[in-house]
């Protein structure tokens, strides 16, 4: 099995598109926990964005998050001493926090490490399966997950045949396609595709089938 690498996709001036279905699972420091690397600055201490899989019974020792940790539970149940978090749970652990995570029956997570503003200290737990959607632009439905000084994270539900207005991304945009097929003039992005678009990039997105995406904007270097 290949080993983890450093310095992957950390040039934030470039667009990155990764179909994570095509990536292999790589080992982590803990037996039973594997990862798909999307962006990584330094092996275990820097900026990192990954898909992480816990096998049943896996657990980490207590560790801290010097610059925060952001998680969306994709499958299974993720746990720590604060609770058990099923599919669709959005979690933010602020800078300086620590925990002992584990999974009794196994889980798959989207994880972002060491990417918080030092003043963004809110701890967040959102069950997106029970939180109501709010009306967005056109036929879109939006579920806000977190906002901090121009940075916004949300789920967006697109009805079939929805076409959004062309727009630019001040502070960049990051998308994880959770279901359906997301599209724009540059390509098609099936479920589990990760897209990171730089500051002031632009596109004209649309869908032909119902699609749900996780969207983060305003957080990349300007």
From TrEMBL:
CDD domains: cupin_ChrR_1. Residues 14-116, 122-220 form the ChrR-like cupin domain. InterPro entries: ChrR-like_cupin_dom, RmlC-like_jellyroll, RmlC_Cupin_sf. This is Cupin domain-containing protein. The lineage of its organism: Bacteria, Pseudomonadati, Pseudomonadota, Gammaproteobacteria, Alteromonadales.
């Amino acid at each position: 099995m290949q080993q983890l690498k450093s310095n992957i996709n950390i040039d934030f001036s470039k667009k990155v598109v990764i179909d994570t279905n095509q990536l292999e699972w790589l080992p982590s420091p803990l037996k039973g926990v594997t990862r798909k690397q999307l962006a990584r600055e330094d092996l275990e201490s820097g900026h990192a964005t990954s898909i992480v899989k816990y096998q049943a019974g896996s657990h980490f020792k207590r560790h801290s998050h010097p610059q925060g940790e952001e998680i969306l539970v994709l499958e299974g149940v993720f746990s720590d001493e604060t609770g058990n978090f099923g599919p669709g749970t959005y979690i933010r652990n602020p800078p300086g926090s620590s925990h002992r995570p584990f999974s009794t029956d196994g889980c798959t997570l989207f994880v972002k490490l060491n990417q918080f503003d030092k003043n963004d200290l809110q701890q967040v737990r959102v069950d997106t399966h029970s939180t109501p959607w709010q009306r967005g632009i056109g036929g879109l439905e939006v579920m806000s997950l977190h906002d901090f000084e121009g940075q916004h994270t949300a789920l967006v539900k697109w009805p079939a045949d929805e076409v959004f207005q062309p727009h630019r991304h001040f502070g960049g945009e990051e998308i994880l396609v959770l279901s359906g097929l997301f599209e724009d003039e540059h390509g098609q992005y099936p479920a589990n595709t990760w897209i990171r678009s730089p500051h002031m990039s632009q596109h004209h997105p649309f869908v032909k089938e119902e699609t749900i995406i996780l969207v983060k904007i305003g957080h990349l270097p300007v």
